[in-house]
Amino acid sequence: MSLTLTKEKHFALLLSIYELSGVATKQKVLDNIQNNNYVSFTSEDLEIKTNRPELHWRNDFAFIRKHLVDHDYIDDSKYNQWEITQDGIDYLFSLCKSIMKSSGENFQRLTENSIKRAMEILGDFDKSRNELVEDQMTMPNETQELFVRRIKRYKKIVDDLKEEYNARCQIENCGFTFVKSNGENYAEGHHLVPLAKGGDQDKKNLVILCANHHRMFHYADIQIRKAETNKREVIINGIVENILYKD
Question: What angle do CA 152, 228, 160 make, to 5 degrees?
Fold first, then answer.
């Protein structure tokens, strides 16, 4: 896929919605683009339109949004809410790959911040893919398209759980995390029952762990008991621990 100016705008718009938990108002989406300097603007872009009190570039991106809606990349069926669809996430990912394959002189409006975010999104994808493989989530004869969708669904669920638990280990009396260089807490997601062994992609089958406990769940003698209201007993090498859940 060759990058055009329109596709650069597609990327900035979808990226902004993706960063805002997948859905946000027009103002928040466009403010996020501007605040993160994802697009370089011309003097004309920053002028106010003659027929309405709005900057040219913001009006332009509103029209860009219509194109993405027509292609089912954005759902705007709810009043003043722009929501990225699964097809939109797939398209965003393909745009990230195109950006990484392009050289700097080919970009018309994308900034270094946009290029960095494209790289980070692909890195997050690779990390999620490796975690899925490590958790033996792949199925025999699974198609690449289905595998990619599993990765993206897995990442969304894990990201939501990390936010819910502040990226802290759910093992009782652990709660360990550390702050990464980007300021975010670090944790890892783990499938209690691998998909290949009858598990599923439901959040109840996922747990947030520190790196140490994650390794234990893979290599120690693990027995997982039935979940109760707000905890689940797990026996690690004969020692009884509890996975804690929020009410």
Answer: 25
pTM tops 0.90:
no
- Give the strand pairing for 231-236 and 239-244: antiparallel
Q: Please tell me the number of Cα atoms within 13 Å of 180 on its side-chain side.
A: 8
What is the DSSP secondary structure assignment for residue 102, as one 8-state letter?
S
pLDDT in tens, 30-82: 999 999 999 999 999 999 988 888 999 999 999 999 999 999 999 999 998 99
Domain limits, the chain = 5-122, 141-244
Write the CB contacts of 79 (distance below 8 Å, at least 6 apart in sequence). none
Packing angle, helices 26-35 and 56-70, rounded to 10: 120
CATH 1.10.10.10 applies to domain 5-122: yes
Q: What is the pLDDT of residues 55-65, one digit of tens each?
A: 999 999 999 99
Please name the residues in contact with 64: beta carbons below 8 A apart, sequence gap of 6 or more. 6, 9, 10, 13
Token representation of residue 159: 């990201």
How many CB atoms neighbour CB 242 within 10 A? 16
Question: Strand runs (DSSP E) across the chain, as ranges?
Answer: 23-24, 74-75, 82-84, 188-191, 206-209, 222-227, 231-236, 239-244
